[in-house]
From TrEMBL:
Belongs to the APS kinase family. Residues 243-395 form the APS kinase domain. This is Adenylyl-sulfate kinase. Its EC number is 2.7.1.25. ATP binds at residues 251-258. GO terms for cellular component: cytoplasm. It catalyses: adenosine 5'-phosphosulfate + ATP = 3'-phosphoadenylyl sulfate + ADP + H(+). GO terms for molecular function: adenylylsulfate kinase activity; ATP binding; sulfate adenylyltransferase (ATP) activity. InterPro entries: APS, APS_kinase_dom, P-loop_NTPase, Sulf_AdTrans/APS_kinase. Gene3D superfamilies: P-loop containing nucleotide triphosphate hydrolases. Keywords: ATP-binding, Kinase, Nucleotide-binding, Nucleotidyltransferase, Phosphoprotein, Transferase. One of its GO terms (biological process) is sulfate assimilation, phosphoadenylyl sulfate reduction by phosphoadenylyl-sulfate reductase (thioredoxin). Pathway: Sulfur metabolism; hydrogen sulfide biosynthesis; sulfite from sulfate: step 2/3. It comes from Promicromonospora sukumoe.
Length: 416
């Protein structure tokens, strides 16, 4: 397995892989989305975890061998009750009394009008699938993201079941809009016989009101003030600035810091905070490409992460970083960069014991380090200097991801 070339999947490609593994689209969709791959390639995530092996068989044939589960995060869109593979949902519907399941694509937060529209569309259907396209990538600023869309859809599901008596099932569809793949076809693969996009039934009047929402405040200001005063109020509001934050996770490989950091970033984004995730492995692929793993290179990598995080926070954003950052001097530089930018700095030491990290060994690095195949590996052949200045200490061997995220958020709230 280790001799095969690897391709690191983007968030959009991970969504497609999840669809393929769940039976929503054929493996050939990966070939269309990933042209130029070798005939035998490992598909990995940004943490270098081997997820699947893709092998070409002939001109158009492809075999996809699952290797390890895709990493999950927290939030309602990751709840196993709604994030189910297409083949499972399809089988569940086929075993029911109704063979004419309606699929409603909920691509936007439903309006009050669309609650009635959904009930009308569902008339006569014993089973209704509410399908929520949810991308791994963050939404555009100001847009409702996957967590909010799922919460709104679950509320609609309850209302719809009450009004129609139908069996209503909410399903999250990992979706980033891959070329050559139609969302209606994907919905059909989940077992929907008839597919409708709920927002497509929005009346022109409602569509116009929704589109005008971002400008409602400005219009109210202009109605309240004379032109010169209104211009100053609008200018002040657009230039509003809050203190930025850098949340910096440090810990051994396999400690769970990346998992917690990703979950935290998603939760903060859902709260409406502009959040940038700087994960150690992803930074290595881009910002620090070409650096080695000797002490000097590691310090340079951490300093680069700190510099970018400080820039994000300087402009009022929230940066969440998750490198190993094994040396106290490097972490001190990052703290100084953040504080010089006027940002709040929170160091989180993910203190999961070495033996637990090594037992997890999702990437196989510890085994290779023990065998002498990897030099300067933190915790084995290179030291990890435990911080004595961390604002929070979390051990993921005794604390769940949800609880760890809650602890960091509680600290941020207490800090203002």
């Amino acid at each position: 397995m280790t001799d095969s070339p690897a391709h690191v999947l983007s968030d959009a490609e991970l969504d497609l892989l999840e669809l393929v593994l769940g039976g929503a689209v054929p493996p050939s969709a990966l070939l269309a989305a990933l042209p130029g791959l070798p005939s035998d390639v490992l598909l990995t995530d940004a943490e270098n975890t081997p997820l699947a092996r893709l092998t070409r068989t002939g001109a158009d044939g492809v075999v996809l061998e699952p290797l390890k589960p895709l990493a999950a995060a927290i939030g309602p869109q990751w709840d196993a009750a709604v994030r189910r593979p297409a083949r499972e949902v399809r089988t569940d519907l086929a075993s029911g009394p109704d063979g004419n399941a309606l699929g409603l694509l909920v691509t936007e937060v439903p309006t009050a009008e669309e609650s009635g529209t959904a009930a009308a569309l569902a008339a006569g259907s014993a089973a209704v699938l509410l399908l929520v396209p949810a991308a791994r990538r963050a939404p555009e600023p100001g847009a409702v993201g996957a967590p909010g869309l799922v919460r709104a859809t679950l509320a609609l599901a309850g209302t719809l079941a009450e009004r129609t008596g139908a069996r209503v099932t909410t399903v999250v569809v990992p979706w980033s809009g891959p070329a050559g793949t139609d969302l209606h076809d994907v919905a059909a693969s989940y077992g929907a016989v008839r597919v409708e996009t709920l927002a497509a039934h929005r009346t022109p009047a409602t569509a116009e009101r929704v589109a005008a929402l971002p400008h409602v405040r400005d219009e109210a200001v202009r109605a309240l003030y004379p032109p010169a005063s209104a211009a100053e109020v609008v200018r002040a509001a657009s230039g509003g600035h809050r203190q930025g934050t850098v949340v910096f996770f440090t810990g051994l490989s396999g400690s769970g810091k990346s998992t917690v950091a990703r979950a935290l970033a998603a939760e903060l984004e859902d709260d409406g905070l502009g959040t940038t995730l700087l994960d150690g492995d992803e930074v290595r692929h881009h910002l620090s490409k070409g650096l080695g793993f000797d002490r000097e290179s590691r310090e340079t990598n951490v300093e680069r992460i700190g510099y970018v995080a400080a820039l994000v926070a300087k402009h009022g954003g929230t940066a969440v970083a998750a490198p190993i950052a094994p040396f106290a001097a490097g972490r001190a530089k990052v703290r100084a960069l953040a504080e010089e930018a006027g940002a709040r700095f929170v160091l989180v030491h993910v203190s999961t014991p070495l033996e637990v990290c090594e037992a997890r060994d999702r990437k196989g690095f510890y085994a290779r380090a023990r065998a002498g195949e990897i030099a300067d590996f933190t915790g084995i052949s290179s030291p990890y200097e435990e911080p004595d200045d961390a604002e929070l200490v979390i051990d993921t061997s005794v604390v769940s991801v949800d609880a760890a995220v809650d602890a960091v958020r509680a600290h941020l709230r207490a800090a203002g």
